[in-house]
Amino acid sequence: MISEIVLAATMTAAANNITDEVRTNRRVDPAIQAAKAAKLAACKKLGPTITDCEIVTAKDIPGQRAAFFIDDVIFVFQDLAKEKPKSIWDHFYLAAFKEAHEKYGLKVQMNIFYQGDFFYGVESAKFTLRDMPDCWKEEFQAAKDWLRFGFHSYSEFPDYPWLNSSYEDVKECWNLLAGEVERFAGPGMFAKAVVPHWGPMSKPGCRALKDLGVKFIWASGAERYEYNGDRSLLPYMHGQRIEERRQPETAMFWRPNSGEDISVSACAYNQITQEQFKEIFGKWKWVHDNDTGLNFAPTGGGVAPCLNLYDVKDIPPRMQQVMACDFIIFASHEEYWFPRYFAYQPDSKEKLMTACKVIADAKIPFVFLEDKIRE
Prior knowledge:
alpha/beta
């Protein structure tokens, strides 16, 4: 019998017209999923983290809009610093986004790392945004009506960098990222919407982001379950990530449609309830937390298209599942664009263009993520 966790996730998806007819390219074995869901269901169910809150509806709703973001951005900066092209648009990656903007009106938030990672070797790890030249500042400034950079993490690893983070760590990383972006790209290029690396953000981290002027942060929406110390519940040493500097709000949840390996995932303060998720998903609405003063809204949650998870042919029907939404958000990850990445997807540009065409054909204008918050 299907567990209550899988059933709840299925009901949430169905409420938003999301079906399994268009599947991701991540491995999902029903037997494995059922076993994992049953194991999670045996854990203690917890209440919400955000309790003093209200659902807010945007003022002066302008009609349907679409937003796009891409996570894990660092390779392009490494290339620019090494190759020093005459123009940033000579680089294939940035050129593709410029083409999508000119052809379909795309606006994009690129969520960035400060440092390369040793996962890719010593030379990668030696690189930081301080090595990024500022000779293309005029080109970046000319593009700031459709291109922005956003807070993501210090580097790609470890996973869940903000799960139990301190106020000071979040503030320091923000200042590093925002400061370097202003140096090499000029003012007005750093976004006020945050999609944390791997998603979860601690309560102290949320307070820091509010104090730094953030308009809203990504939120997952599902039942919370207590982590009981059984590290076999989670993959990739994620149990240890929960244990390190553990915050009171750190727990687990069921992540749908992301593959069997991470279906049981860690969560932190930025976790809204399933009921709140259903009410605000795809709408000009968000959850306002009176405690931290921060706004929370899903930018995915397993139901909005993440392009690197789909084959090109499946992107149009997958996009159609959310085209009735008032605020459509889709996403991707930078590394899949680059041949040096072990899971390189050579059709990454085609995926982007295909998704953007669906939006453009529906005559839906693009906006930035932070434009969702209209107070």
